[in-house]
Amino acid sequence: MTRDLTAQNPITERGRMAPKEYDAILLASFGGPEGQDDVIPFLRNVTRGRGIPDERLEEVSHHYRAFGGISPINEQNRALKAALEAELAARGIELPVLWGNRNWDPYIPQVLQDAYDAGHRRILTVTTSAYSCYSSCRQYREDLGMALVESGLDGKLEVDKIRQYFDHPGFVEPFIEGTAAGLAKVRAAVGEAGKVHILFATHSIPTRDADAAGASVDEPREFDEGSAYVAQHLAAAAAVVERVDPAADWSLVYQSRSGAPHVPWLEPDISDAMEELAENGVRGVVVVPLGFVSDHMEVVWDLDTEAKETAERLELAFDRVPTPGTHQKFVAGLVDLVCERTVANNIADRPAMTGLGPWYDVCRPGCCANFRGEKPTIAGADTRVGSVAAASA
């Protein structure tokens, strides 16, 4: 069953949707294993459709195995859910918070079915991903769209999504606090004469996906390095540096690359960047995990373990800045983003700390394309799934 999104949900300037009366919030995240027996089934979920044998998955499971097979992401999402519930209650906003994952229990399809069975008909989704690219935005929209279609809930359950929040103050300001503290710590460690560099780290993605991020067939925009994903990170990093120390040296680096070696991904890798910095006389680095909402596996392994070991080998002073996690400003910011979309407690002003935002409520046609083939998606101007709840709620 399909519905015409634009006819039922008028979009105002810059992709803004009219406020609605939602009856629940869905916190949607990646998911992660919670024991050694979960690791391979979880990795099968993540790589489904790519034909990767279990033997290869076992080779790449070592970072989960090192932590007892437990990813910290699920517990962090439980904490974030509780923090959101507390912030909503403090404001007198009566919206239950549901939680669903793309790759592990609780799975999004079952959460949506349970929500419908409980009487919910209009849900606003908050994802734990702030930027624009296929894996950070469109894949969530696809998973939600596929869940509605495969469960028969399309046309019965309406599911929308808040805008990408890479430059919302609630996301950026915790990084400003952490970067200021980290920079002071590393500068004290290397002394007045020591050169310090800030490394803003994010997940690398294939360059093809990066080029497609933010691309639109109806509203072409030019981005730094030709990619909304890259441009959003650069703009957010610049906003942090401007508030902390405009004279500080900084750069954007990438981590957590996977996939076939012959496929080009965004570079430089953080460890390679540290090698070059050390050769050029830098004595300390402040690592800001700008691409991440919480301290999940890509942070505690790729940064706190591998990048830190590289720094130690190069004799670089090292400090890793906290992610927003359950920082009060971040939690309040997410609730503000919800209130941008609601009739009750509406927040009409939409703050953005960069010139790229505020980002769209509804993704533009063709944005962050899936090169493996089109799927039903929600919250897109070129999609017709999940946009209208049935009249007989």
UniProtKB/TrEMBL annotation:
Fe-coproporphyrin III binds at S71, Y140. It catalyses: Fe-coproporphyrin III + 2 H(+) = coproporphyrin III + Fe(2+). Fe(2+) binds at H203, E298. It is found in: Cytoplasm. Keywords: Cytoplasm, Heme biosynthesis, Iron, Lyase, Metal-binding, Porphyrin biosynthesis. InterPro entries: Ferrochelatase, Ferrochelatase_C, Ferrochelatase_N. Transmembrane segments: none annotated. GO terms for molecular function: ferrochelatase activity. Gene3D superfamilies: 3.40.50.1400. Belongs to the ferrochelatase family. This is Coproporphyrin III ferrochelatase. It comes from Arthrobacter russicus. The gene is cpfC.
